[in-house]
């Protein structure tokens, strides 16, 4: 069809410079192994940390909800699309997170967008870690507030930006709890101390920490014993929780404000009953099956140690997100292809998702992986790494 020629040209350029990516459909349920192109491979690229995408209790809750309440809600939350189960879930989530209130959005992405774009005006300033997630960056782009960036996890740089922000009404520091490409944890105790010193608010995006860090997976804030000292926690229901959605846990006041001013909340249809029921069951699983989180961390240690013993550089990772640093973009993709031939699905991540020259295979183990699967994956990494000259003979 005519009219898209300039877009096609850009796509061709992406093919030339190696940044074009084809979608890779799974032909099976998400799990420790998946079927791709007719082949069963070990899955090391999902965010399904606890294996909840196919957990019996979540599936059962979703099925029951469909039978009882149907498949959709037919309206946005603020008109006719709030079900009692939405509100029950939010109360349960707030209690779980030890906060005053919780509000669910359609996704983690829209939660960041909605919170940041609505609560800040030109009287306020947002101070953001340079490696924060795209949804935080986009949320900031939508505000009229002052914008400052501090160097990645650099507390001197954060303090400098705070000192330069004292004329604003509200200073909001925003950080990922766990950084999604390197797997490092934000230095939250130091951030909170600086925030208290300079009278700033703190917002943490716990997309990769919910269900992973803290008691029963309560997240980074709980992991550091900072309950009650962080003003806004955002999280996703799409990774460890295994379903779909995003949430903010915060004060009653901000919740009420977002119901009135959070644009994705106001203008996009609410979650289907099956989604909410499954998320509700996920909290029960976090509370009643802590062995899943223990297994996740046991697997993380086994796999990370294994990669390091083989001689791979896993960067600054402290969590189940373990990058295997390669550098060159084309070589990163070749490594990923080679791993696939060896029976492992581990996607390469290159520019623009990570800085130029820092291509990596980003692996995430889950609680579902068996030791045998992880040992098989390590052998595949060893063979592929040697074939490509990434490991010494
Ligand atoms: N924040 C971070 C740090 C993320 O990694 C992601 C997911 N890529 C999101 C927010 C968005 O979450 P969701 O997939 O639920 O929209």
TrEMBL record:
EC number(s) on file: 2.3.1.47
Domain annotation Aminotransferase class I/classII large: ranges: 40-380
Keywords: Acyltransferase, Biotin biosynthesis, Ligase, Pyridoxal phosphate, Transferase
The name this protein goes by in its record: 8-amino-7-ketopelargonate synthase
N6-(pyridoxal phosphate)lysine modifications at: 239
Enzymatic reactions: 6-carboxyhexanoyl-[ACP] + L-alanine + H(+) = (8S)-8-amino-7-oxononanoate + holo-[ACP] + CO2
Class of this enzyme: transferase
Taxonomic placement: Bacteria, Bacillati, Bacillota, Bacilli, Bacillales
Pathway in which the depicted protein is active: Cofactor biosynthesis; biotin biosynthesis
Listed Gene3D superfamilies: Aspartate Aminotransferase, domain 1 (3.90.1150.10), Type I PLP-dependent aspartate aminotransferase-like (Major domain) (3.40.640.10)
Function: Catalyzes the decarboxylative condensation of pimeloyl-[acyl-carrier protein] and L-alanine to produce 8-amino-7-oxononanoate (AON), [acyl-carrier protein], and carbon dioxide.
Originating organism: Pontibacillus halophilus JSM 076056 = DSM 19796
């Amino acid at each position: 069809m005519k009219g898209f020629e300039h877009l096609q040209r850009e796509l061709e350029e992406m093919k030339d410079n190696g940044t074009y990516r084809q979608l890779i459909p799974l032909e099976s349920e998400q799990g420790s192994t998946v079927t791709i192109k007719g082949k069963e491979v070990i899955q090391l690229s999902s965010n399904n940390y606890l294996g909840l995408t196919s957990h019996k209790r979540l599936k059962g809750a979703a099925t029951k909800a469909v039978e009882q309440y149907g498949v959709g809600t037919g309206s946005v939350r603020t008109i006719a699309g709030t079900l009692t189960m939405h509100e029950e879930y939010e109360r349960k989530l707030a209690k779980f997170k030890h906060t005053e209130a919780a509000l669910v959005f359609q996704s983690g992405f829209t939660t960041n967008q909605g919170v940041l774009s609505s609560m800040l005006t030109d009287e306020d300033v947002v101070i953001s870690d340079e490696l924060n997630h795209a949804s935080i960056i986009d949320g900031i782009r939508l505000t009229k507030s002052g914008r400052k960036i501090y160097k990645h996890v650099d507390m001197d740089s954060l303090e400098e930006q705070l000192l330069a922000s004292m004329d604003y009404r509200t200073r909001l520091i925003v950080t990922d709890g766990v950084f999604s490409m390197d797997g490092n944890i934000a230095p939250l105790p130091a951030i909170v101390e600086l925030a208290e010193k300079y009278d700033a608010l703190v917002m943490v995006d716990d997309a990769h920490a919910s269900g992973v860090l803290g008691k029963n997976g309560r997240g980074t804030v709980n992991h550091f014993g900072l309950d009650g000292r962080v003003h806004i926690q955002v999280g996703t229901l799409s990774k460890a929780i295994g379903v779909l959605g995003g949430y903010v846990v915060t004060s009653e006041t901000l919740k009420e404000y977002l119901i009135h001013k959070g644009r994705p909340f106001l203008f996009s249809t609410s979650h289907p009953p099956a989604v909410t029921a499954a998320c509700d069951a996920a909290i029960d699983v976090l509370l009643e099956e802590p062995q899943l989180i223990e297994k996740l961390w046991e697997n993380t240690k086994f796999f990370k140690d294994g990669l390091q013993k083989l001689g791979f550089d896993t960067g600054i990772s402290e969590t189940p997100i373990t990058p295997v640093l390669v550098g060159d973009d084309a070589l990163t993709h070749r490594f990923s292809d080679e791993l696939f031939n060896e029976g492992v699905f581990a996607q390469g991540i290159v520019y623009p998702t990570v800085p130029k020259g820092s291509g990596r295979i980003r692996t995430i183990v889950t609680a579902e992986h068996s030791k045998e699967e992880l040992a098989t994956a390590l052998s595949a990494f060893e063979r592929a790494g040697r074939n490509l000259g990434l490991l010494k003979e």
